[in-house]
Design a protein that fits this description.
single chain; four-stranded antiparallel beta sheet; 47% strand
Length: 116
């Protein structure tokens, strides 16, 4: 299993970023995928999840209305569109497979820094 996150960077408050996670080594289209984030000195937290067929999407209260999770099963990729970014969104963002067989696999993450 390989998860490769990309798309992070430095952005001003109110700005936008689109994260991508390219997955391989398992049947991507069968599983719910999630985005997590970890800020310095804090626990890793669940940000958003999307079901295998994109029918169900769930968000942490802190990002509802600002972030949108999506996926392209043909490309084995999950995305996180982040709008109206806030300083408190600063973290390393990771994607993960929502299944017990794969939950232990993590990519290197992608750093998102929101600062003026």
């Amino acid at each position: 299993v390989q998860l490769v996150e990309s798309g992070g960077g430095l952005v001003q408050p109110g700005g936008s970023l689109r994260l991508s996670c390219a997955a391989s080594g398992f049947t991507f289209s069968r599983y719910t995928m999630s985005w997590y984030r970890q800020a310095p000195g804090k626990e890793r937290e669940l940000v958003a999840s999307i079901s295998s067929g994109s029918r169900s999407r769930n968000y942490a209260d802190s990002v509802k209305g600002r972030f949108t999770i999506s996926r392209d099963n043909a490309k084995n990729t999950v995305y996180l569109q982040m709008n109206s970014l806030k300083v408190e969104d600063t973290a390393v963002y990771y994607c993960n497979v929502d299944h017990s067989a794969y939950r232990g696999y993590w990519g290197q993450g992608t750093q998102v820094t929101v600062s003026s």
